[in-house]
Amino acid sequence: MAARAEILALAARLRSGFEAQGARAVETPILQPADALLDLYGEEIRARAYTATDALRGEQMMRPDFTVPVVQMHMSQGAEPARYTYAGEVFRRQEHDPDRANEYIQVGYEVFDRTDPAAADAEVFALIAQALGGLSLRAATGDIGILKAAILGLQTTETRKAMLLRHIWRPRRFRALLDRYAHPQAPAPARAALFTAADPFAEAGPEIGLRSRAEIARRLHALRDDAATAPISHHELTMIDALLTVRETAPFALQQLRDIAVDLPAITPAIDGLDARFTALAARGIDTENLDFEAAYGRTSMEYYDGFVFGFYAEGRPDLPPVATGGRYDALTRELGQGAEIPAVGAVLRPGLMLELQEVSR
After folding, report:
1. Exposure winner among 33, 82, 154, 191, fewest CB in 10 A?
2. Parallel, antiparallel or unpaired: strands 308-314 and 324-328
3. Using only C-alpha atoms, what is the Rg of the chain?
4. What does the angle CA 166 – CA 321 – CA 69 come to, to the nearest 5 degrees?
5. Element (DSSP H or E) covering residue 110
6. Reported pTM
7. Mean pLDDT of successive 10-residue segments in the chain (362 residues)?
8. In the structure, how many helices (H) and strands (E) does the chain have?
9. CA quadruple 207, 211, 217, 222: dihedral sign
10. Cβ-contact 220, 195 below 8 angstroms
11. In angstroms, rounded to a whole number, what is the distance separating the alpha carbons of residues 193 and 138?
């Protein structure tokens, strides 16, 4: 394992390389207000982050990544277009995998530019690939935006679409919801009685728990509406399944997606964006003929990405996390921008893993 001094030295060189490309070096506090992270990720973030309580500042979290504070900084005071780079520690709890580091150095490059999203995607990917030059790594790419477009195009209620979108990054929950919406089950007799009762609280006992009567009534109303909604068609379900199984090199993946779009036309604009990205990557010298594309890639570990996603992996080392990951997070700028937004894409590298792989290859 590389010494900390070596890791810091490589991190400094990587950051300097990004500065040479026009990025401004920025720093963010290690302690971050928990509110913003909880709003974005929900209570699940507590399982991955170290938390502390400050009498004056409230609940704080040790920085789980740089992207959120960099977006907050840019949306509050940044001009556009803008490019940023940073290097420093991030902290992740590892309660189920003691072999994974809970503190490591991360180097990043972020682009905020609304001029040409495909070109910005290609810029970030190409610079990361260049920084990783000399290492034997496999690049995986995907596009969360295509699946989102497919969900928004379903012939079903906005409530169901919102639930599916919310759980895109939880594949098992997403699958369970999709199956439930396509094959609804008759409610149990007790629940059915609540749906049909004029006053579901008529024979209720004392109120307990944290939910108010109004909240319970809204939930019952939503359940009634859902029970009365027609199921998602078998045809649409089949198309979603076909989309999620696309895993090919870029040209063949694009063709498969075009074929699926004949029956699922809502994804056509997203596929056009994918096509433009492949063209921009090729212009940057990336061998797109052999670039892997997986339509389902990024759905288990990239919660705030909503478009292009990618990662670089060490072949033959499934025990290692990705050496670099990145993607587009336009929705995050809307979430943190208080009404403002700007297309954004970025990526992070792990210099410690880079040095570990260099040592093995010697």
Report:
1. 191
2. antiparallel
3. 23
4. 55
5. strand 103-112
6. 0.86
7. 89 97 93 78 72 82 88 85 94 73 91 95 98 93 96 92 89 91 67 54 62 65 67 92 96 97 96 97 97 91 83 88 94 83 94 89 60
8. 14, 12
9. negative
10. yes
11. 56
